[in-house]
Write a structure and sequence with these properties.
The complex is a heterodimer of chains A (233) and B (541). Chain A has 233 residues and is of the alpha/beta class. Helix content of chain A is 39%, strand content 23%. Chain B is α+β, with helices and mostly antiparallel strands and 541 residues long. Chain B has four domains: 7-25 and 174-295, Beta-Lactamase, CATH 3.30.450.40; 45-167, no CATH class; 303-377, Helix Hairpins; 385-537, Histidine kinase-like ATPase, C-terminal domain (Heat Shock Protein 90, 2-Layer Sandwich). Chain B has helices at 45-66, 72-87, 92-110, 122-170, 175-190, 219-231, 274-341, 346-377, 389-400, 424-441, 496-506, and strands spanning 192-199, 207-209, 235-236, 248-254, 257-266, 385-387, 409-413, 420-422, 448-455, 458-465, 510-515, 521-528. In chain B, α4 runs antiparallel to α5 (175-190) and α7 runs antiparallel to α8. The longest helix of chain B is centred in the middle third of the chain and has 68 residues, at 274-341. Chain B is rod-shaped, with a radius of gyration of 46 Å. The chains are: A alpha/beta (233), B alpha+beta (541).
Chain lengths: 233, 541
Amino acid sequence: MNTTVTSPILALVVDDEPQIQRLLTITLEAAGYRVTIADGGKQALVIAAQQRHDIILLDLGLPDLSGLETLKRLREWTQTPILILTVHDSETEKVQALDCGADDYVTKPFNTAELLARLRAALRRANRGRDEEPVFRFGDLEADLSNRRVTRAGQPVMLTATEYNLFRLFIQHAGKVLTHRHILREVWGPNYQEKTAYLRVYVLRLREKLEVNPAAPKLFLTEPGVGYRLAES
Amino acid sequence: MSAAPSKDFESPAAPTAPPPEPEARLLPVAWLQGEGSFSSQLLTVWQQYFIAFGMFAVTTLLNLWLQRWIGYQTIALVYLLAVVLLALFVGRGPILFGTALTALGWNFFFAPPAFAFNIADTYDNMMLVIYFVVTLTVGHLTTHLRAQRTLEQERERRTAALYQLTRELADAADLDDIFCKIIRQVGIFFKADVALLLPNTNLPVELSPYTASVWSPKEKELNVARWVYDNKQPAGRSTETLSEAEGLYWPLVTSKGSAGVLALRGKSKCELTVPQRNLLENFARQIGLILDRQRLRDAETNVRLLAESERLGRTLLNSVSHEFRTPIAAITSAASGLQTSGSLAPTQQKLALEIESACARLNRVVQSLLNAARLQSGHMRPNLDWCEVSDLVQVALRGVGNLTAAHPLETRIDPGLPLVKADFVLMEQVLVNLLINAATHTPLGTTIEVAARIAGEELILEVADRGPGLPSDQLDRVFDLFHRAPTAKPGGTGLGLAIVKGFVEAQGGRVWAENRPGGGAIFKVKLRVSEKPDLRMEDIL
């Protein structure tokens, strides 16, 4: 990665633990990022306003301003991708963060490779225009959004209108976690935000139609307690 | 106009009539006996007539003296003045009496011919009639005004009494304080012995006097109170129901039904008047409202305390968890960073991998301890939502990772399983723990089977192994916290299965272990699926 990048990627790390700060600095700098550190939410807001960063890593458990509040305030004016650092069994927090505009989350303790992959994916999504690349490929699966055509190994796959809408939403946000509420709102409408049952039924159907092995899905990934993520091609 | 005074509103005839006071006071008022009043109510009817006569006599003497300087017509005005003054103190009868006396007196003593009842002049006759009418009208108006004022005062005092009670009760610190104040205030206002009969918590409900009660009704009387409590109607003395009882029983009704009974035993043997009855009714209503408010306040305090303890527990858990997880995260991150740096010798690479997997294990232990603590604190709130079973199993298998790598896994999920209302994250942990448990306690290479099926209204998830099985006395005990089967291999914390049990039960399910025919143990989780998802056919397209 660091060989292809001409100017280093600027990352803002917001975490109150010096140990995590040091580690993230080492890890990210080794991967070619330039790192700025903020100890708390307030400082993060100031730094983010002073200098444009390419990506922000935000810990949710901050001492002064809660991570969620910091996130909301950042999202009032910037579209910089934000990656949330969080702990296990805080699904509600993750969902809230995602609904407030976070791009992705990584659960502590995280593997360095996994963290870097998530960062790369978030940056890629941010740089990619929303309507770019109308064709999505995954294995022998191909979805052409401009022609509303889905094929597997060249054979057309028939999807109902709702199935197609759901799949299209996933493709538009490939690699990104989508919360249940978000998906239900986008595909079924605001009155269906709590009707998780629909989503379960349709994801099952899409898996049956589009996965190579529906019992071990590789494309439509479940994020327990949070939502779904479409694997990137 | 009747001279009989007993039915007049300012009448003093009824001994229990509330004696009005010149000024409304905020202090408790004795209702059953008059105090500190100068008004007519303290004077008997005969005294009033005597005053009227005395006034007449004095005025007549005065007039006889004044006669030397003023004419007999002006004398009439002096009489009029006297009657008006009289009207300030006495009732209608005595006024009429006074009016008649003065009219006759004027006629007899002053109107020519003096000292005779016949009047010579038509003009004087006319004057006599007009005098009579004017005097009577003025007297009547004055009495009327006074009566009005008395009524006003009485109303004002009743309001003041009610206000006093409300204020006293509003200042009360707790329920006991409220009860004591009720007993005291009602006792003072009604000059009666007061008992507060409260229901016990058991069934059938029994009423017993509150400790601070001034008297305690006898067994027979308690039955009256019981009737009052059940029917929310007053009974006993001064009422139409069971009026031969010793006390008067008034229900205290709140929005949640009867809260108790107020029992009054008058010190004197008199009945309650209508205004007193109204006041008592108002008192009871006010007390009901205050008890209602106190109940809500207590409930709110409880909720707050509970929330507070929950918050404290969570804070503690969060900080402990943070202190454990931060170093674990740092070590994991460092160890994995070492591996990806690509500059390690093969041995170093292996060591870094060991550090990482040890950290993962440590993290699982911390996670288990935190889960166990969450269960122990009783603050477990499952987030029940629709789950798809095959997805659940698949996510759990992914969560176990390579921990079951040494065991072949078989999954058997019945097709067409319905959606189940459960907490996805908790269920995932349940399956992960059962799988890890199976992998840790069985010989390498033995198969682990995961199955899901529907039996009637229940979903059954099974994790079965081909290990040594469990001693029959251990089948229940394996789910106890920190319990480890004596035959168990070293390793494991004794937390995993306890968490399984806690999580399953938090979702209203059940978990148990059995030995399989042909060897090995089987753990079964049962969840109710009676609820069906509300899916509209037109939306499933």
